[in-house]
From TrEMBL:
Database matches in PANTHER family: METALLOPROTEASE ARX1-RELATED, PROTEASE FAMILY M24 METHIONYL AMINOPEPTIDASE, AMINOPEPTIDASE P
Classification lineage: Eukaryota, Fungi, Dikarya, Ascomycota, Saccharomycotina
GO molecular function: metal ion binding; metallopeptidase activity
InterPro entries (UniProt xref): Creatinase/aminopeptidase-like, PA2G4/ARX1
Name of the protein described by the UniProt record: Probable metalloprotease ARX1
Native species: Dekkera bruxellensis (Brettanomyces custersii)
């Protein structure tokens, strides 16, 4: 199966966009560090609000929003260059128990999912 793009677009995509040089590799490494730091931040929020009870329990939606805003602020501080494509490729998602891949509830939604003591929570960003 081939993509339906023009030869000019294919040339730009293959010759200019998909070049893996040292600069691009450093950007991937930085993105990985930001992502790992965000996971640690979310785990600390979950521990402080559920296990240690220092804070009120966050809902899944609040944790997703806090994770997204953390990554956005970290990315804004990372590169000040005039870059067109900058931002989060996929929002933070939280999987609870048997819910897999991509649960990122809306803050204004009716589902105020607060975790219970036996829930298995996985943070993905």
């Amino acid at each position: 199966m081939s993509l339906q793009i023009s030869s000019k677009e294919a040339e730009v995509l293959l010759k200019q966009k998909n070049v893996l040089n040292e600069y691009v590799l450093e950007k991937y490494k930085l993105a990985g560090r930001i992502s790992q730091t965000c996971v640690k931040y979310l785990v600390s929020l979950i521990n402080n609000s559920y296990h240690l009870q220092k804070l009120k329990p966050y809902t899944a939606a609040e944790l997703c929003i806090l994770g997204d805003s953390y990554m956005k602020s970290a990315l804004n501080d990372a590169y000040d260059l005039n870059v067109k494509e900058k931002g989060i490729a996929q929002p933070v998602t939280i999987d609870v128990n048997d819910v897999l891949e991509g649960y990122s509830p809306e803050v204004d939604g009716d589902n105020k999912n607060i975790f219970s003591s036996r829930d298995v929570v996985t943070c993905i960003n």
